[in-house]
């Protein structure tokens, strides 16, 4: 009996150590390799030429993950001021370079050479796929060239009445809150306004909080934001093996089902609407049909897909989701 109890105790201890050490190894080994391998040492040497707060060996600034959101925001603001116009921090083996100075931002955004996205962007791909924000290489160039006309000033000007309507509603909502004389959180109010605008301009739908599907979609956007925040800020979630067995992965899966399902339904409905309108006005020139009404971004993508066969349904979804984000 004593032998059995002792054996069980040892096995329990071993299992505990495995559960503890395997995640640590998955996080720390890549960081240690950056001190050992030639590529890793070169990476550290180059990145460390950029100023930044003092970090601990191997783990870098991982302790920042223990900060509250409020403290983390203050910490980043302090670094922006202290190390302006650029600074870096290390999350284990991953550097995060924060660009503050506008001249630095301009130099990067104007470049058409260095367009491959950093490690953070992979967390966006389950939702956004290979849209403009996350793609690189030839796909980025071709889609950027294809989509640029949809953001012509004349097209954007057509949305001004919609912008004004939503802005007026926002001002009314803020006025009501302000009249109470009590402090209030403006973030959800502003977020709702911007979401209304982007839904109407990107997908051509007006959000109705009484609609169950739309309410779930709005909630799913916020939920996915929480997933993104945790994957970026908490390094243990950067290890796919650890993330995939976490409750956060289940939340992501449930959220993506809602996000993709909603967008796919809208795309399907808009495609059917496009086919119907085209058949009813088949003798009408394409240019005249385009001027007939203000078109949402999604409708313009569908037109590109149906008329010129340039985009698949998945690519349409990716680009729409990118602008929803």
UniProtKB/TrEMBL annotation:
Q: Which GO terms describe its cellular component?
A: endoplasmic reticulum membrane
| Key words of the record | Endoplasmic reticulum, Heme, Iron, Membrane, Metal-binding, Microsome, Monooxygenase, Oxidoreductase, Transmembrane, Transmembrane helix
- Give the way it sits in the membrane: Peripheral membrane protein
Q: Kindly report the protein's main subcellular placement as a broad class.
A: endoplasmic reticulum
Note whether Transmembrane helix occurs among the keywords: yes
Tell me the compartments it is located in.
Endoplasmic reticulum membrane; Microsome membrane
Which Gene3D superfamilies has this protein been placed in? Cytochrome P450
**Cofactors:** heme
Q: Which residues form the signal peptide?
A: none
**What stretches pass through the bilayer?**
6-36
Q: Which GO terms describe its molecular function?
A: heme binding; iron ion binding; monooxygenase activity; oxidoreductase activity, acting on paired donors, with incorporation or reduction of molecular oxygen
Q: Which InterPro entries match?
A: Cyt_P450, Cyt_P450_sf, Cytochrome_P450_Monoox
Q: Where does the record place a coiled coil?
A: none
Q: Which family does it belong to?
A: Belongs to the cytochrome P450 family.
Under what name is this protein listed? Cytochrome P450
Organism whose genome encodes this protein: Ladona fulva
Lineage here is: Eukaryota, Metazoa, Ecdysozoa, Arthropoda, Hexapoda
């Amino acid at each position: 009996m004593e032998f059995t109890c002792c054996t069980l105790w040892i096995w329990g201890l071993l299992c505990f150590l495995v559960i503890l050490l395997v995640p640590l190894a998955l996080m720390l080994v890549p960081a240690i390799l950056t001190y050992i391998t030639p590529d890793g040492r070169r990476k550290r040497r180059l990145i460390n030429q950029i100023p930044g707060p003092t970090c601990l060996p191997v783990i870098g600034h991982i302790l920042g993950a223990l900060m509250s959101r409020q403290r983390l925001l203050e910490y980043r603001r302090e670094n922006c001021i202290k190390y302006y116009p650029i600074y870096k921090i290390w999350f284990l083996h991953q550097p995060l370079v924060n660009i503050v100075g506008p001249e630095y931002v301009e130099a990067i955004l104007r470049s058409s050479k260095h367009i491959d996205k950093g490690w953070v962007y992979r967390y966006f791909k389950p939702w956004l796929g290979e849209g403009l924000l996350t793609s690189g290489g030839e796909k980025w160039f071709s889609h950027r060239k294809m989509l640029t006309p949809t953001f012509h000033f004349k097209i954007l000007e057509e949305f001004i009445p919609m912008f004004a309507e939503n802005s007026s509603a926002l001002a009314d909502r803020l006025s009501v809150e302000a009249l109470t004389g009590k402090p209030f959180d403006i973030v959800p109010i502003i977020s709702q306004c911007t979401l209304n605008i982007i839904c109407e301009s990107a997908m051509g739908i007006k959000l109705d909080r009484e609609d169950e599907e739309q309410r779930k979609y709005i909630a799913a956007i916020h939920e996915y934001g929480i997933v993104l925040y945790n994957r970026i800020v908490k390094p243990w979630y950067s290890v796919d093996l650890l993330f995939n067995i976490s409750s956060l992965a289940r939340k992501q899966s449930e959220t993506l089902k809602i996000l993709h399902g909603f967008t796919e339904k809208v795309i399907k409905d808009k495609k059917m609407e496009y086919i119907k309108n085209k058949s009813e006005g088949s003798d009408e020139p394409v240019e005249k049909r385009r001027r007939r009404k203000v078109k949402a971004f999604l409708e313009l993508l569908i037109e590109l897909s149906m008329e010129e066969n340039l985009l698949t349904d998945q690519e349409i979804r990716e680009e729409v989701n990118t602008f929803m984000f």
